[in-house]
């Protein structure tokens, strides 16, 4: 077999065999197929798609390109959650401590930012000293000891995904159902969790722009997971505007801490309770969503959820003082609000444009391996459905140069649309795929 023949076959709309997919993926992993051929293959998949069989084969090959973790010696039930990516999505930082505080171990391997979508690892690295690079032994020991771990995938777990994920981010090959499904589920299968809740985003700030596409992706991922013996559930959630008020790494960590204290933004709090409740249900702690929410709310009210977050930070060598003093995280030199240009109601706040503006500030990457600025980002004071008055603060920019501030403030202002009549807030969720 030859890599170029496989690229041409997919480019021309052909269906790849399991053997061809395995040859190409393992060639990438072993360094026998260079980045430029891998990028061409990814683009062919974006343009031509993959059949359900190809997608399942790609997922299994990627999952088994390295070790597959067995967590049965840690706990009889370990849960995980995954988001397909969004803007202002710091949900993992909230739900993992909430669920762990209820007695259900959460073992999560996360990724970095992808295109305009933020990454959990980048957010966590806003915390001074925190290490997201754990060995498998460290991952399992922390999970056994405190019941919670969020780390990057090790080089031994789904290494094919790590390579292809980084390439997709910088080659315009992110928005593809088979590539997203195989990336998500290969990591989840390799990471060993028994039950997985998928937070599948739909809208302007998601890779799936319509609810229909998000449902299609969710169904594929649920089928893949159940086909390999995992309990999987997917929630289709809105991503037409940022989730919560903060966008940017340190700003989002601070908002997650506030939410664990019980005073986070209403939309973020409700979103986290819903996702966490389904995690408790899949994990077998309860079969009733209302009962699950009651347990989670008590974990926040009692301080147990916040304490789990503190334990995780400390276990991963981060400074636990950040829990009480989020201001020790990186801070921008310019913090300045932008005023509403008119009276009315917010009709739209384009999440993708906000995400792109955040990348422009330095909160995300434009090139593979590029360092990011953890301090920069935005705080939103008005979102869809909110009443605004001309001259009052609409959003605040956190930037590290005057030029960056000017570009970002104008960019985000263009992401807003206003209405002279009242506008309803969008729903948080559209559907649950069981």
Can I get a quick summary?
With 434 residues, this protein is an alpha/beta fold.
Could you characterize the architecture of this molecule?
- With 434 residues, the chain is α/β, with parallel strands linked by helices.
- It contains 16 helices and 13 strands.
- It has helices at 3-11, 18-29, 35-48, 52-63, 91-101, 120-124, 136-146, 159-170, 177-191, 211-227, 249-260, 266-282, 289-301, 304-315, 351-361, 402-415; strands at residues 79-83, 106-110, 148-152, 195-202, 231-238, 246-247, 334-339, 344-349, 377-380, 387-388, 393-399, 416-419, 429-433.
- Helix 1 packs parallel to helix 3 and helix 9 packs parallel to helix 10 (211-227).
- The radius of gyration is 21 Å and the shape is globular.
- The two termini are 40 Å apart.
- The model has no long low-confidence stretch (mean pLDDT 94).
Q: What layout of secondary structure does this protein have?
A:
Layout: H1 3-11, H2 18-29, H3 35-48, H4 52-63, E1 79-83, H5 91-101, E2 106-110, H6 120-124, H7 136-146, E3 148-152, H8 159-170, H9 177-191, E4 195-202, H10 211-227, E5 231-238, E6 246-247, H11 249-260, H12 266-282, H13 289-301, H14 304-315, E7 334-339, E8 344-349, H15 351-361, E9 377-380, E10 387-388, E11 393-399, H16 402-415, E12 416-419, E13 429-433
Parallel strand pairs: 1-4, 2-3, 4-5
Antiparallel strand pairs: 5-13, 6-9, 7-11, 8-10, 8-12, 9-11
Helix pairs in contact: 1-3, 2-4, 2-8, 4-9, 5-11, 5-12, 5-14, 9-10, 12-13, 15-16
């Amino acid at each position: 077999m030859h890599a170029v023949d496989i690229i041409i076959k997919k480019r021309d709309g052909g269906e790849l065999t399991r053997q061809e997919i395995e040859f190409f993926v393992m060639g990438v992993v072993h360094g026998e197929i260079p980045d430029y051929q891998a990028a061409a293959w990814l683009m062919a998949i974006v343009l031509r798609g993959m059949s359900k069989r190809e997608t399942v084969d790609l997922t299994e090959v990627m999952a088994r390109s390295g070790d597959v973790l067995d967590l049965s010696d840690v706990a009889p039930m370990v849960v995980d959650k995954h988001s397909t990516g969004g803007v202002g999505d710091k949900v993992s930082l909230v739900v993992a401590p909430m669920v762990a505080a209820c007695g259900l171990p959460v073992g999560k391997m996360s990724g970095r930012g992808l295109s305009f979508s933020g990454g959990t690892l980048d957010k966590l690295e806003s915390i001074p000293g925190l290490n997201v690079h754990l060995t498998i032994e460290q991952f399992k020991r922390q999970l056994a000891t405190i019941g919670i771990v969020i780390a990057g995938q090790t080089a031994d777990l789904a290494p094919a995904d790590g390579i292809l994920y980084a390439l997709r981010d910088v080659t315009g090959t992110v928005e593809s159902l088979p590539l997203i499904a195989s990336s998500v589920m290969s990591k989840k299968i390799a990471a060993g969790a028994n039950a997985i809740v998928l937070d599948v985003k739909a809208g302007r700030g998601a890779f799936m722009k319509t609810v229909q596409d998000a449902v299609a992706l969710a169904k594929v991922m649920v089928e893949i997971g159940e086909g390999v013996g995992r309990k999987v559930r997917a929630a289709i959630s809105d991503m037409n505007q940022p989730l919560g008020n903060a966008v940017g790494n340190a700003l989002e960590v601070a908002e997650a801490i506030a939410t664990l204290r019980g005073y986070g933004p209403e939309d973020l709090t409700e979103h986290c309770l819903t996702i966490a409740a389904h995690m408790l249900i899949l994990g077998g702690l309860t079969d009733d969503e209302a009962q699950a929410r009651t347990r989670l709310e008590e974990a926040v009210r009692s301080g147990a959820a916040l304490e789990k977050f503190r334990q995780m930070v400390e276990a991963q060598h981060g400074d636990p003082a950040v829990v009480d003093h989020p201001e020790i995280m990186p801070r921008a030199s310019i913090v300045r609000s932008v005023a509403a240009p008119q009276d009315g109601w917010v009709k739209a706040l384009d999440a993708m444009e906000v995400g792109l503006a955040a990348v422009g500030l330095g909160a995300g990457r434009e090139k593979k391996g590029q360092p990011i600025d953890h301090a920069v980002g935005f705080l939103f004071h008005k979102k869809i459905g909110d009443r605004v008055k001309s001259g009052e603060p609409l959003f605040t920019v956190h930037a590290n140069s005057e030029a960056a501030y000017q570009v970002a403030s104008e960019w985000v202002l263009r992401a807003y649309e206003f209405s002279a009549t009242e506008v309803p807030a969008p729903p948080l969720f559209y559907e649950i795929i069981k």
